[in-house]
Design a protein that fits this description.
By secondary structure, this protein is an alpha+beta fold. Helices cover about 45% and strands about 25% of the residues. A hairpin with a 3-residue loop joins strand 3 and strand 4.
Length: about 210
C-alpha cells in the first residue's frame, strides 16, 4: 500500500487548507482577468481510485478540456486540471470577450486555446505556490500542456507510471461560487498524482508524522 492510501483525516485537512489558500490566490488573479469578483473555494479533498477519477471526469469516453503539468522541485508529481466543455467554453467567452465562441466548433483558434492554457496555468500555479509557501519547500510547475480529448486518453499519460506504485490519487474539488453574473457554480477538478515520496516530503516539512 502506498503512502497516498494511508493519508489520515488530519493530513487531508491540511491539503484542503492549502487548496483553499491556493483557490483564494487564483480567485484574485481570475477577478483581474475577468474584471469581476470571483470567489473560489475547495469544499473537499479526497482519495479516489483511478477508476473513480475517470468517472468523476465524466467517464473514459467523455470529452473534456484538461491542463496537465509536472510538479517539480523538492517534491515531484503530476497534476491535471479538468473542466467540462461547457465550463471551458464559458471561460473562453469571458476571457476573449467573444460571446459567440462555441467549444464544439473546430478547429479552435489559437486565442481560445491560449486562454484555456493560461486559465490552467493560473489555477495550478496558485495551488502549487500556496503549497510551496505553506511548507517552505521549493515546488513549482512545469510549462502546462492543454488537451481537449476523451478522459481516458487525457489521463492515461499521468497514470502510466504511477500505476506501478499505487492505484489511487488525490482529487481536489474546486468550486467557483458565482455571483449575480452567473446562473450556478462552476466546478473543476484537480487530480494530484504524486510521485513516490511526495507526501513524505510535504508532511515532514510541516512536522506532521504519518501517525498524527
Amino acid at each position: 500500500m502506498s503512502f497516498i492510501e494511508k493519508i489520515n483525516p488530519l493530513q487531508l485537512d491540511i491539503l484542503k487548507e492549502i487548496g483553499n489558500i491556493g483557490a483564494g490566490n487564483a480567485a484574485t488573479a481570475l477577478s483581474s482577468i475577468l474584471n469581476r469578483k470571483v470567489d473560489m473555494n475547495v469544499p473537499n479533498v479526497r482519495i479516489v481510485s483511478f477508476d473513480e477519477m475517470m468517472e468523476m471526469a465524466g467517464g473514459a469516453d467523455h470529452v473534456v478540456a484538461s491542463v496537465f503539468l509536472r510538479i517539480e522541485g523538492d517534491a515531484s508529481g503530476s497534476m491535471f486540471f479538468i473542466l467540462s466543455l461547457p465550463v471551458a467554453q464559458y471561460f473562453i467567452r469571458q476571457m476573449t470577450g467573444d460571446g459567440t465562441f462555441l467549444i464544439d466548433a473546430t478547429p479552435y483558434t489559437e486565442l481560445a486555446l491560449s486562454c484555456l492554457q493560461e486559465l490552467g496555468n493560473i489555477l495550478s500555479g496558485s495551488y502549487l505556490s500556496s503549497l510551496s509557501d505553506f511548507t517552505g519547500l521549493n515546488i513549482y510547475p512545469s510549462v502546462p500542456s492543454l488537451s481537449i480529448d476523451m478522459v481516458g486518453a487525457t489521463l492515461s499519460y499521468g497514470l502510466l507510471e504511477l500505476s506501478q506504485v499505487s492505484d489511487a490519487a488525490i482529487v481536489i474539488d474546486t468550486v467557483l461560487e458565482k455571483g449575480q453574473h452567473f446562473a450556478e457554480s462552476i466546478d473543476g477538478h484537480f487530480f494530484l498524482l504524486p510521485d513516490p515520496g511526495f507526501f513524505d516530503t510535504i508532511f515532514s516539512a510541516l512536522g506532521v508524522s504519518p501517525n498524527d
